[in-house]
């Protein structure tokens, strides 16, 4: 999937992560702005590849991750919040693709 990503989107993602590392405070937390920039960069990176590539990665992991892991992970968060975050990521991906 990474090899299929737009090089400019990858570069922006790397730079966003690099900047965020530089703003980490004494508690190991980056700034809100840098966190948001990372998430935006990830959205652009993911949006730059065909859905089929993203699903190939998902399916590859689903083949090696025990079937009870997703339910366990969902049990560690508020399910509604996780669903909202997932929906927002998909919406962002669609917005980025439409802007191209």
Q: What is the number of domains?
A: 1
Low-confidence stretches: none
CATH architecture: Alpha solenoid
Number of E-type strands = 0
CATH class: Mainly Alpha
Please write the string of helix (H) and strand (E) elements: HHHHH
Distance between the termini: 19 Å
Main sheet? none
Overall mean pLDDT stands at: 89
Per the CATH scheme, the topology name is Peridinin-chlorophyll Protein, Chain M
Overall, the morphology is: globular
Strand content: under 5%
Number of helices: 5
Percent helix, as a range, is over 70%
Q: Kindly provide the radius of gyration, computed on alpha-carbon positions and rounded to a whole number of angstroms.
A: 15 Å
- What structural class do the secondary elements suggest? mainly alpha
- What name goes with the CATH superfamily? Peridinin-chlorophyll A binding
Characterization of this structure:
The chain has 5 helices and no strands. The protein has one domain (2-99): Peridinin-chlorophyll A binding (Peridinin-chlorophyll Protein, Chain M, Alpha solenoid). 74% of the residues lie in helices and 0% in strands. The protein starts with 6 loop residues before the first helix and ends with a helix. By secondary structure, it is mainly alpha-helical. The model has no long low-confidence stretch (mean pLDDT 89). The protein has helices at 7-22, 32-47, 51-64, 69-75, 79-99.
